[in-house]
Predict the structure.
Amino acid sequence: MAPKASDKVLSYNDVVLRRSDLDILSGPYFLNDRVIEFYLSYLSSSFPSEDVLLVSPSIAFWIKECPDAASVKDFVEPLHLSRRKLIIFPINNNSDVNLAEGGTHWSLLAFERNTNVFVHHDSSSGMNKWDAKRVYNAILPYTTTDASYIDYPDTPKQENGYDCGVYVLAIARVICNWYASSGSKDNVDLWFPSLKEQINSSAVSEMRNEVLRLVQDLMARK
């Protein structure tokens, strides 16, 4: 029987990847929710700490689109945001709760408790600014802080219309590496110097290949 796009190829933590996800990683395509969730789950396993939380795309989306405070509470309370020191949210500009895997752009919102700030990284010059601000406004009370919000203007910029999700994954990895190595010691510049040093269009292209190789390696170990 010929392989189908819907065939399951890997179960990793709570994420199931399908053959179509391999095609997305192989070609110049916009990353979907599953690929984003897979890699964030992988990072969570690579940096195990109760202080760090990488939120799944579906939870971040529902927090953004919840119609009332009571609904937000249901999604947010199990995350225990008040005790987290670093929280990363993937932000998507989909606003239709009836449209699965909608939207046209990914960005990243990070909360760092020691400096009391939310930082929005958008590889397309603020395209997701209002979506990120909605998540910030929804969850701020649950962090038990008065943290400020900034759109970081020097986020590395994508040079095409499809790599935004890969930028999110690359930025998330930089932030996790920064936190694991020196984040608690030197918060003055946060992870910003590392972004400038490590992320550019060629590095993002390699990142796409790296995630594909990671999936293939995990498949081979099954």
In short: Helices lie at 19-26, 33-46, 57-65, 69-76, 129-139, 164-183, 192-198, 201-220.
